[in-house]
Write a structure and sequence with these properties.
Blueprint lengths: L14 H24 L7 H28 L4 H56 L9 H52 L5
Keywords: Membrane, Transmembrane, Transmembrane helix
InterPro entries: HpsJ-like
């Protein structure tokens, strides 16, 4: 039986080079996503900001992974490592500050949803009251039916308000949590890159 010897063909792989390629690919993908999500910008629109910050939080792990891989690949190149460390610190602080904006905007969206539900419910209540005041306008609507419709409307409006509160709260916690966690991780990555290497 012939044995195959382990030969070195002169090919060596540099893990830092691979990390650099994957890191830049992650950054490029993150930037393309953010550019697409940003247009058309509507900074004055609360719903747009909430959606944008939620998408930013959801995709932020790709940014963190890309920056960490690039930091690893440049760990021996002091000027690049320090610049990247500073960028990580700044982006981390921006992420943490944007979480405050996300909280405020989510509370506004919740308030707007509840106000909209209340307005629609009061308009329907007004129509029911008009029908109760003038039973001759529509003889098919009995006072019992109108009372049932009013009770059903109240219970549905309350359920819709509770659902709006719950869904906005869940989305808000998710996006704020992602922004804070990735922001803190980026700050930690920046501090790690800024410290002098161990000898």
């Amino acid at each position: 039986m012939a044995s195959i010897s382990n030969q070195n063909f002169g090919v060596s792989y540099n893990p830092k080079g691979l990390c650099r390629i994957v890191g830049f690919a992650c950054l490029a993908g993150f930037l393309v996503d953010m550019i697409v999500l940003t247009f058309p910008p509507a900074l004055g629109n609360v719903e747009w900001r909430v959606g944008f910050l939620q998408q930013l939080g959801d995709r932020s792990i790709i940014l963190l992974l890309g920056l960490a891989l690039i930091m690893y690949s440049w760990i021996d190149i002091r000027p690049w490592r320090r610049k990247l460390a500073l960028a990580c610190l700044i982006i981390g602080v921006v992420f943490n500050l944007s979480s405050v904006l996300a909280i405020r905007d989510n509370l506004k969206v919740q308030e707007m949803a509840i106000t909209n539900i209340s307005t629609q419910a009061s308009q329907l209540q007004t129509q029911i009251q008009k029908a109760q005041a003038d039973p001759k306008a529509n003889p098919n609507l009995t006072p019992e039916r109108l009372e049932q419709a009013a009770q059903l409307l109240n219970s549905q409006a309350n359920a819709l308000k509770q659902n709006a509160k719950t869904s906005v709260l869940k989305n808000g916690i998710s996006s704020v949590g992602n922004l804070v966690v990735v922001g803190l991780a980026l700050i930690g990555l920046g501090q790690y890159g800024a410290r002098p290497p161990k000898n």
